[in-house]
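Saturday, quiet lab. Running sequence design on the structure tokens for the scaffold JK sent over.
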């Protein structure tokens, strides 16, 4: 998998961009892994993976962590959307993904509450034709 971005949240951040890939055009699926390593003392760390549609960014996956270490995976595909989905920016329900939407660009943003004194959050991705 490719590293999309990594961040050490030692202060409270809101929608901090931790990585971008501007070349996912024509891909039908993206597999995502989000790894929290050694998070200490904070309250919540939420990573939102987003795609750009026009000039706006929308959540397609979210990963939620508290403290400690954990690894989570999700996959987003252009197939599978069977009902209208409300597009959000940094507020998708924890540990979920929306199917059916992949744009030209992919990015990850991080929002934290509480002050972490240690740890790293990293996002990896793999595109599929």
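Result came back. Writing it out in full:
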């Amino acid at each position: 998998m490719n590293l999309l971005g990594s961040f050490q949240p030692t202060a409270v951040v809101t929608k901090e961009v931790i990585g971008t890939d501007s070349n996912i055009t024509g891909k039908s699926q993206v597999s995502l892994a989000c790894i929290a390593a050694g998070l200490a003392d904070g309250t919540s760390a939420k990573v939102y993976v987003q795609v750009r549609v026009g000039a706006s960014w929308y959540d397609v996956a979210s990963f939620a962590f508290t403290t400690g270490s954990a690894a989570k995976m999700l996959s987003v595909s252009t197939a599978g959307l069977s009902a209208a989905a409300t597009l959000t920016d940094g507020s998708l329900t924890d540990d979920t993904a929306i199917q059916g939407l992949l744009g030209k660009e992919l990015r990850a943003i991080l929002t934290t509450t509480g002050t972490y004194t240690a740890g790293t959050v990293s996002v990896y991705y793999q595109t599929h034709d």
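Notes for JK: The radius of gyration is 14 Å. The chain has a mean pLDDT of 94. Ask whether to fix the surface positions before the next round.
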